[in-house]
Amino acid sequence: MTCFETIQAYAFRSLGFGENLLPRTDFNLCQQFTLIGSGLIWNVYFGVLALSLGFFLATALALAKASPRARFRKPAEWFIFVFRGSPLFIQFFLAYSALVMLPRGGVEIFGLHIATSWLTSAWAGAAFVLFLNTSAYAAEIFYGALQSIPKGDLEAAEAYGLSGWSKFRRIQWPTMLRLAWPAYTNEAIFLFHATTLVFFSGFPAFQQRGDALYYANYFADKTFNPFVPYPIVAFYFILLTFTLIGLFGLVNRRLNRHLPSNTRSKIRLRPQLIR
């Protein structure tokens, strides 16, 4: 089997397309790069889903923590404290143990039958844990940014007649994102790296359709050589990190486009003809 045929057979195997059986003998670099890259699709899925949904929950938690009302502030503080204070690895196992205890036949809520068996799979349960974890970390970042907004900006907004939702949408939220974005970029990178913990958690892979570390571990067990598949995983994640830095850098430049330090000054040639 040539390398091109290998890519055709295994490029989307982690999604259930292509060859069903994993290679058994004569392992080569093309097979390892292709299958580990195929498993990386799940890592990207976990990261994108948790990050996109967690962004909105983190914003709500940050606002709740900054609220003067205790009924909003206290639940947000405890949520952030619990998920930031406990290891992500333990959160995976506790969540899986709790979801397994749900009835396999489903539960009845307000007369509606809701199936629960799908929650114990990695694509749903593990993504849910990552979503809650990154929401807590990002909420603390956004809360710190909210507290760092210059009072002069808020006073100027009130002087212009902005209050409530208008002041938050036009002044507080953009300023919060601008201040928090560098730290939030680091949180996004950490989240995508943390998706590798799904392999070690209790959430099982469906029909050998695992993430990048799942296939790397398969090749390491078959070849007794961990120094090829695991560096391939690291290589893929380095490329993923560069991609995240580039995308978040574009957003950061967009958020800070009004600052004088980000405006490019035009070079003016002024030749001196007479001295």
Describe this structure in words.
This protein has a single domain, classed as MetI-like fold, CATH 1.10.3720.10. Helices cover 65% and strands 2% of the residues. It is built from 9 helices and 2 strands; from the N terminus they run ααααββααααα. The chain has helices at 3-10, 29-65, 70-85, 88-100, 122-147, 151-159, 165-194, 212-223, 229-255; strands at 107-109, 112-114. The chain is flat. The mean pLDDT is 90.
Please work out how many helical segments DSSP would assign. 9
Largest sheet: 2 strands, antiparallel
Mean pLDDT: 90
Structural class: mainly alpha
Q: Mind sketching the topology for me?
A:
Layout (H helix, E strand, L loop, with lengths): L2 H8 L18 H37 L4 H16 L2 H13 L6 E3 L2 E3 L7 H26 L3 H9 L5 H30 L17 H12 L5 H27 L20
Antiparallel strand pairs: 1-2
Characterize this entry briefly.
Strand 1 and strand 2 (112-114) form a beta hairpin. With 275 residues, the protein is mostly helical. Helix 1 packs parallel to helix 2 (29-65).
Question: Which tags fit this structure?
Answer:
275 residues, two-stranded antiparallel ribbon, 2 strands, 2% strand, single chain, mainly alpha, MetI-like fold
